[in-house]
Amino acid sequence: MPDVAARLPEHGRISCPLCHLNQTIVFDSTRRSDGNWRITANPLAWGNPDAEVVVLGFSKGPTQAGALASTAHDQIAFKGSRLAVGKILAHIGLIPRQEPDALKRTVDHLIADRTGRFHFGSLIRCTVERLDRDGTWKGSGGGMLDKFVAAPFGQEVARKCATRFLGVISPSTKVVVMFGLGSKGNYINESRKLFQQSQPGRWTMFNEISYTDGKLMVVHVEHFASQGALLPNWLGEKPHERARLGVLAREATQIGLAKSK
Description:
The protein is of the alpha+beta class. It has one domain: Uracil-DNA Glycosylase, subunit E. The protein is about 30% helix and about 20% strand. The strands form two sheets. The protein has an eight-stranded mixed beta sheet, with helices on one face. The protein has a four-stranded antiparallel beta sheet with strand order 2-3-7-8, with no helix packed on it. Strand 2 and strand 3 form a beta hairpin. Helix 4 crosses helix 5 and helix 4 crosses helix 6. It starts with 11 loop residues before the first strand and ends with a helix. About 45% of the residues are buried. The N terminus is likely disordered.
């Protein structure tokens, strides 16, 4: 019988002690560190746990994590980047293309909707930070996705998180959208391993940015906080080789939605 606790979580704060070595969990205070990495116990979820589409960042960045104590729950997810999120979701055909203000309002509504088509969260539900050279902990930076899921501590946390939250994903879910590609596709490869571990089956690459077990399609898209021209190029705003990856993401998403589970 499936472990109900492993299903996608309900909209709100999540109680999860798995990675914190029997510590008493105090939300947004309990931490565990290992070398240059640490996690903070503040897992969150938005939207419908039985959603057709699951949208996952990697972890909460400093803009989101820094807002937990002072911001309403429905305003935290992708705070400061919702227009970029909207552009990406529209580009792969999940929401209509709209003017910027309307696009941002659409994302606001989807994140707050507990019974809608979408579930929002992160692959690592706790906040991940890396110790910088200046001695401060930072939740963003180049190569962070790749390096955390490749480190032993990151592998442990990612494996437990994937098993807990993706291991018994809702039968209603057809597509998982993952923000981030990684250097030379490294994040895609590491994430695919997590899905293989959490949902045993015959996982194969559908194209170079997506993979499937025949029931669930996982699609990697440009990160919403990508710097410089990365996101505009992926969106195809001007002719560029990177636009091909956006086209592949749209194709995989539409094939995934068309599949019957």
